Amino acid sequence: MACFVPFNNRNLDVTLFVFRPTVVLVDELVESLKQFCLCTETLGCVQSSIFKSIHGNLIIWYGGWMKKSTANKELLTTTLLSMLTSMSSMAVLIEHSFFDAYAGESKDGSNAAKFSTGNIVSMNLVTSSSSDLNDLSYANLALFKSRFLKMEGATAGVCLKCQSMPRVACLYVWKSLLLCYSWILTSDYRKTMLPYLHHFSLCIKYDIFWVVYVSSENVQNYQILPQHRVLENEGETRNDGHII
To answer: What global pTM score does this model have?
Structure first.
């Protein structure tokens, strides 16, 4: 079953861990992260995936968790970081955060961005040193709304906002790498992005990734409900926790 990112944060927390490999061949790191995926299931992670940068030197681990309290997230952060120390000889963990999904669209009518092993995803990450998160989130959403339907080959997109700092992201799922390239080469950055973000003091990052692994063992136990039927899950899962 495909991995997914829902278009709201009603009952799923999203984590992104970004690694910069320090080894030439990253296969060993990817294999270690696959084992990490399995271990996180015992902590309550309902789905996880690994993205490998096509042109850059980054690996992203994505995890989806049933909603947790702040205290439990802090405990989980400590636990996960401890588990990752065994990979310190293969990569540097450069960023890790919990995100809330707050908007999204798909071209097949589903209410989540879905991806499987072998798919292409792109991500842009915008961090502000001084802006209010609400203002930054609104600008990110306006930018997403203005361009998604024009992005030929993009099947779904989701807007994310960081829970701990003024940082937002958009994740897009693509039909093919060629169509992703086509959009990048034909879109005018100054016309499509700057009108929405020019008044912020920003650091903008963008990359394209292969989805190299999807863990689907527990995904089938988490049903995506229509938005009008989704109820907030106030219960805590075993060993609840958080990333900052």
So the answer is: 0.84
Buried b (16+ CB within 10 A) or exposed e, 113-150: bbbeeebbbbbbbbbbeebebeebbebbbebbeebbee
Burial 197-208 (b: 16+ CB within 10 A, else e): beebebeeeebb
Residues 6+ away with beta carbon under 8 Å from 141: 102, 103, 159
pLDDT at 133: 86
Six-digit token string for 171: 């994740």
Whole-angstrom distance, CA of residue 40 vs CA of residue 56: 26
Which residues 6+ apart lie within 8 Å of 57 measured at CB?
20, 21
CA distance 241 to 15: 11
